[in-house]
Amino acid sequence: MKAYVYGPEGARISDVAQPKPKGAQVLVRVRACGLNRADTGMRKGHAHGAAGGVGTVLGMEWAGEVAELGPDAKGVKVGDRIMGSGGAAFAEYTLADHGRLFHAPSNMNFEEAATLPVALATMHNAVVTVGGLQPGQSVLIQGASSGVGLMAMQIARLKGAKLVIGSSTDAYRRGRLKEYGADLAVDSSDPKWVDQVLAATNGEGVDLIVDQVSGKVASQNLAATKVLGRIVNVGRLGGTHADFNFDLHAARRIDHVGVTFRTRTIEEVRAIFAEVHKDIWGAVESRKLQLPIDKVFAFDDIDQAFAHMEANKHLGKIVVTV
């Protein structure tokens, strides 16, 4: 089968053996894949958790059809239209754990379905389960113009947030954040953004920040969070190291939590997918929660898809069809 593989000379489409499902695995005939920021690093040979390196089939998000079941797989049957996340997505066939997938709604095509699994699982966990957002509270999403950021704002709005703030350093994308749930859009590269957040919250700061940026905004986030507020760190687009104002963190008594799928067990991931289905799946099926597709590329043009992502001018998801 064809797959997009990282090798000694970089990533390229290669012929590899079709995998065979074992245990609770499902073999998926992939029809479309969503690109994610982590894919760009793995394409350059960087590890993502335990995955990566020479011989790695890249990709982590897909939609397609069940082709075969492992002996312990439950909840799906051959022919079902499904979407999910996991390694080796950029291929004609991939393996998925039966607890790490969703049935694709009948009103979505494969391209649309491939945009959702990572964003839904990541941001329901960050905003609701870990972030503890309650109706009437305020939230700031750092890096809101990414696919997962757009989903975070929509989930916050769905769960009853009274004020949703999104950040983007790009003027065009910042101008479109209100289409996806933002009441206020700020530029996190402008030192005055904290003042804007405080002005919008009567000087108190927000109840919750979901931070995909970190780096230089880490201490600014503390100043923009209210006393006894919460910060959930899900990314590091702004860098992995920065100054941190420990005194301000203590003074505001902020609950600061880091989350990632890279160190979670399969049991933890299954629980996250189950919670998404239990809590917000109706909003997915009704298309209340959805993501824009910026551009669709054919599998043979996957390098162009990555170039488009690295140009950093897109809004929403980049999709590759297989």
TrEMBL record:
Q: Which organism was this protein described from?
A: Bradyrhizobium nitroreducens
Q: Which InterPro entries does the record match to this protein?
A: ADH-like_C, ADH-like_N, ER, GroES-like_sf, NAD(P)-bd_dom_sf, Zinc-ADH_QOR/CCCR
Q: Name one GO molecular function term.
A: oxidoreductase activity
Top-rank taxon: Bacteria
Q: Name one Pfam family in it.
A: ADH_N
User: Where would I find the Enoyl reductase (ER) domain in this sequence?
Assistant: 7-320
Write down the SUPFAM superfamilies for this protein, in alphabetical order: GroES-like, NAD(P)-binding Rossmann-fold domains
Q: Enumerate the UniProt keywords alphabetically.
A: NADP
| Protein's name according to its UniProt entry | Quinone oxidoreductase
